[in-house]
Amino acid sequence: MEKKPTIQYSAPASNVEHIKRAIAYKLVFSIGQIPAIADTTDWLNAVILSVRDLMVEDWLKTVETEISNPNRQVHYISIEYLMGRTLSNALISTGLYDQVKQALGEMWIDLDELCEMEADPGLGNGGLGRLAACFMDSLSTLGYPAWGYGLRYDYGMFKQCIIDNKQVEKTDDWLKYGFSWEFFRDKAKHVVQFGGYVIQEGEIGKWVSDGKVMAVAYDQIIPGYNTDTTNTLRLWSAHAYDDLDMAKFNQGDYANALGKKTMAENITSILYPDDSTEHGKVLRLLQEYLLVSATVQDIVHRHYLVYKTVDNLADKIAIHLNDTHPVLSIPELIRVLVTDYQCTWDKAWEMTQKIFSYTNHTLLSEALECWPVSMIGKLLPQHLQIIYKINYDFLEFCKKSKFGDTDFIRRVSIIDEDNGRRVRMAWLAVIGSHKVNGVSKLHSNLMATELFGDFAKIWPDKFINVTNGVTPRRWIGIANPKLANLLNQRIGGDWRKNLTKLSNVKQFVNDKSFLKEFFEIKYQNKKRLANYVFENLHIQIDPNAMFDMQIKRIHEYKRQTLNLLHVIVRYNEILQNPDADWVPRVVFFSGKAAPGYVVAKGIIEIINEVAQVINNDARVKNKLKVVFIPNYSVSIAEMMIPAADLSEQISLAGYEASGTSNMKFILNGAIIIGTLDGANIEIKECVGDENIFIFGHTAEEVIEIRKHYDLNKYWQDQRIHKALTDISSGKFSPNEPNRFAPFLMGNFQDYYQNLADFDSYYNTQKKVDALYRDPMKWAKCAIMNIACAGMFSSDRSIQEYAEKIWNIEPINA
Ligand code: 26Q
User: How far is the CA of 515 from the centre of ligand 1 (A)?
Assistant: First the structure.
């Protein structure tokens, strides 16, 4: 037999001269553009293609190693990934930033300008999607063999414009100029079926579906920081199973011939912009199932290619469910194993429980997914039967245990019989997983005692905590390069991979030159933001004022309203006492409201109206400004967070599962004013009581207060009374004086206890002012926050997941 030839290829080199040529080559031969007339988009795409080339070899090697040295691998399934821009991250991870900057400079192109031009893919709503992105970064950086699976929406999170003070949504056509990072994987595709009926035969019956679509893969490279491990993010896009209905086409029925194709492609056309409610939409269920079915088939298929058996699947594969959105993976894995790989039910179920784990991100009842049985039955008849069998076996097991009374059975049943027969997706996730985690200590405790309290009685060890974290590579390295430099000079660069090294900063808290440099960096970052605000919103702000920020989704429980109430009270006090020694403040808000969430949209509107009145009131001068920055996104966060002095983390205690911006803020030397909620509690433990401003009732007190909430009592408070009367009487909405009439006493509910926490918030804000008056003390406190932020790296979170949940080891361990 003749030996196969070795295929040679020339790998790209990474010195400046080669990079220059590579970029020019891409510009001419891949983009098809003459360098003399190329615009910045052409250059950007040429740079992306050449940098991608430099990452491909490590990537393919990682995939090869996974096949030849098959340790257990984790598969992270998330319906959202908020990756942010890719270029600067890729350049810094691979250590190519300086060479590429020089290469471009020699061609008179500014790399930083190109980086700023890159689109920011918004394939997520907020915290959950961004967490998935930080986790992908940490998995690669720590060298874990991992695959991320998600959906490639044609349109990401809507773009938010503010017109007449109101949120107006525009579509996010992020693929308009192409997305040069991705690889279209023509061969990685799976048929996804829907509808039809089940013929009762064998253990799970035979599914005769009545619709099929094709899920095709687009892969992205996820480089680790300064490591060879380079993982894959695989996003599915829906296509027609057969492109055109040729019979119809030939009969001239073009519209219907295309109909099926359009229907199929609709499935991944848009990200649902709602992060709490909005259940019951067939298209959303189709999205969830497409993600799950393509992913599970892909995982099992790739496993089978290596081992030629599925018997060892549970030893080699871990699958993690980022919230319940991908929980249909559980019945899908059983279906695939029994139908396509001839497993018995018992074996399939045993493996399933070993393979799956699940993270809960919310206790809000309206955010817990429940799907009508009728809808699942129609769309996924076999999955409904599998869910019924899982439920039957589980309830039988309960009945035999000491917990088997009828009330208990009714509560733990996957089928909620009391609310129109619905499938409780979180229950399915708990029953099908071996570990379930919350995302901060408080949230995990509440999760195991309240939401899943019944299940924790049966399986006390199943419920654990893994506190969230964020990647320091992006949230210091990219967002705040000046601070990164200062840290490098003073404590070396190890913090990027070992964030606890930040504690070495403590030795500089009394070092005048360090404090001065920190100050100067903060000032520069504030100036940059002030310029942005001036150029885009035409509001002049002073970088010497305290920059106070609340940037996150608009939600009643997050209490942007409490912040605004304080702003109005402060405004009234400034007017009453203009010559007092006011600490100048700029209060920033940024965040999107779900398009159907009327109250949240009202909150945006009133913030903007109050801003308009205050910013244009000459009597206030520079003592107070209010700025709403439109279209909050990863790239806006990267600009704002490094410029913050004060970070508002003021949710009603017990409602914010963790929060992750709180971690990004302390990494960048901002001080938190916050409630004892989510990860704020652990931040307080780390930074010390003297370096965080805590106010408000505890989660326990909140429950007590709710039992006899006395709105009248708080209404007596003159500050509150005046502020709310100002709003409801139309002071901020002169064109429509009745617009905020709901704020009138009587209509006002205050479910999230804004008024009960107001006094404590107000007094704490006074303490914040006092500290800000002493710049050196403020700087010390801010620096202590940086020094104590080590625990909030997503590397630490991923390490815990790897050890406590997934049982995986680094590739080169
Ligand atoms: C569910 C069903 C139908 C439509 C949409 C959804 C949906 C989509 C997104 C439900 C929830 C989300 C996102 C939730 C989220 O971002 N939660 C946040 O997760 C962070 C990471 O753990 C935490 O830090 C935040 O506290 C939590 O609010």
Answer: 38
